[in-house]
Amino acid sequence: KANLKKDHITILFVGIWFERKGGRELLEAYKNLSRRHSNISLVVIGKLPRDISISTLSNVVHKNWVERKKLMNFYFPKADIFVLDPPKAEGYGFVVTEAMSFGIPCIVSEVGALPELVEDGKSGFVVKPGSVSALEKALEELIVNKSLRMKFGKNARMRYLEKFTIRESQKK
């Protein structure tokens, strides 16, 4: 379950293909938000392109790769918001359902199956692909509104249980 009772807010990004999954847009939005909110941090799991440096950003943790057990037992449980914001293409977005299983509200772009996973305004936000301002606005809303974050997290968990468990998938 997401750690929604603390004052510090952790944003999680997991993606092997950093740029394809919207990593650049997230870094730009985070850079802007971190100027206004000292209580946020960003965890990026996935290899960064060579031209990107996060050394100037505060409260950013980067791991090229973590084993699944650590992802499931450490990173997801500590996250408050999950972001997968591909600007152009995405298949299913399995990592989004994993985040939802932990009761983490998700912000995704309106690409591929992602809008079918996250109900916009109920279990997270679905934003315009490639739009840093749309992503930043959605993140800001979840950062400043703890009750909305908690509500979306609860709804994300319920949606996962109703639609995306192995049992539910096998029924379909």
In brief, what are we looking at here?
This protein is an alpha/beta fold and 172 residues long. The protein has helices spanning 23-36, 68-78, 94-101, 114-117, 132-144, 146-164, 166-171, and strands at residues 9-14, 40-45, 60-63, 81-84, 106-109, 124-127. Strands 3-2-1-4-5-6 form a 6-stranded parallel sheet, with helices on both faces.
Any overview of this molecule?
- Helix 1 (23-36) packs across helix 5 and helix 3 crosses helix 6 (146-164).
- The chain has helices spanning 23-36, 68-78, 94-101, 114-117, 132-144, 146-164, 166-171, and strands spanning 9-14, 40-45, 60-63, 81-84, 106-109, 124-127.
- The protein is globular.
- Strands 3-2-1-4-5-6 form a six-stranded parallel sheet, with helices on both faces.
- The longest helix has 19 residues, at 146-164.
- Residues 1-5 have low confidence and may be disordered.
- The protein is 44% helix and 16% strand.
- It has 172 residues and is an alpha/beta fold.
- Strand 1, helix 1 (23-36) and strand 2 (40-45) form a beta-alpha-beta unit.
- The chain is built from seven helices and six strands.
Task: Record keyword descriptors for this entry.
16% strand; globular; six-stranded parallel sheet; 6 strands; alpha/beta; 7 helices; 172 residues; disordered N terminus
Lay out the secondary structure.
Blueprint: E1 9-14, H1 23-36, E2 40-45, E3 60-63, H2 68-78, E4 81-84, H3 94-101, E5 106-109, H4 114-117, E6 124-127, H5 132-144, H6 146-164, H7 166-171
